[in-house]
Design brief:
The radius of gyration is 17 Å and the shape is globular. It is built from 4 helices and 7 strands, in the order βααβαβαββββ. About 20% of the residues lie in helices and about 15% in strands. It has one domain: 4-Layer Sandwich (Purple Acid Phosphatase, chain A, domain 2).
């Protein structure tokens, strides 16, 4: 069994400040996140992975236009056609987007709850995936404490978009300095 994990994709990020670098290939750099995501989709299909885990900050906040959402749905449709499941935990930047709440995703995509940790068992693979997304941009509680114990009969994967114990100059989100995971590290 193979799977792919990715986080902090920030699709369609504006990458502010590039203009101040004379001669920088601004448009090429700005489209890099979509090219990288396309590569992730192609790799997933080529490698025939069982599932893809997208763990926070898929988007960069509210989109400039709805095309970002249409682009994402189309890529998820490609994975659907290849029989690949996708599991998503919304991150702090995703929570800022009102538009994403109205996206119609294909049935191969599971978006984890933002209210409490949720566990999904893939019986056919012997895998348990647990996660919780961000309902708001500022999640300052250690939400990992409410994650259920892993099942010793399964490969347990815990998904959490976190800044662990913080980073100087960066807002703290979902801190979990005391977290002792009962999951396989991803």
């Amino acid at each position: 069994m193979k799977f792919i994990h990715a986080a902090d994709i920030h699709l369609d990020s504006a990458l502010h400040g590039l203009e101040r670098y004379e001669g920088a290939p601004v448009e090429e750099i700005r489209s890099a996140t979509c090219r990288a995501f396309d590569n992730l989709i192609e790799l997933s299909i080529d490698e025939e992975v069982a599932f893809v885990l997208l763990v926070g900050d898929l988007y960069d906040g509210d989109w400039k236009d709805y095309n970002t959402g249409l682009y994402f749905v189309e890529r998820m449709g490609r994975l659907h056609d290849a029989g690949i499941r996708v599991f998503i935990v919304a991150g702090n930047h995703d929570a800022a987007s009102q538009i994403t709440k109205h996206l119609r995703l294909p049935d191969n995509v599971t978006l984890f709850s933002t209210r409490k940790p949720e566990r999904i068992v893939l019986d056919d693979l012997g895998v348990s995936i647990c996660g919780q997304g961000f309902a708001t941009r500022a999640v300052t509680d250690d939400i990992s404490r409410d994650y259920p114990q892993g099942d010793p009969q399964l490969l347990n994967i815990g998904l959490l978009h976190t800044c662990l114990d913080g980073k100087l100059g960066h807002e703290p989100y979902a801190p979990c300095t005391g977290w002792t995971p009962q999951f396989s590290p991803v």
